[in-house]
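Suppose you are handed a protein chain with no further information: no name, no annotation, nothing but its sequence. What can you learn? This example shows the usual starting point.
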Amino acid sequence: MFLLTLFITPLIMIIPTEATAPALILVGLTMLSSVRNINFEDVTESLPAFMTIVMTIFTFNFGTGIAAGIITYVVVKALSGRHKEVHPGMYILVIPLIAYFISLA
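A reasonable first move is to predict its three-dimensional structure. Written in structure tokens, the prediction is:
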């Protein structure tokens, strides 16, 4: 399937970025409806969610927002002494995400 996308990519590149805005707005609204499920009384849960939302808005990039949220989640849980609540794979995932942010600087 990835090989097939090589032939479709030039067609997709013709679409201007402005045309994708309505789809991104709908995705954002769909994601925003989940905010009511966040436990705002627990900082280790609410701060990563807040960072994800803020970074997504300010960078105009869902991937960057999610990466910032994952890093914040792991760091906050580790610093609060609740490191056992974090899956071991998340600690491994944080390493390339931090490298990603360093490469942006």
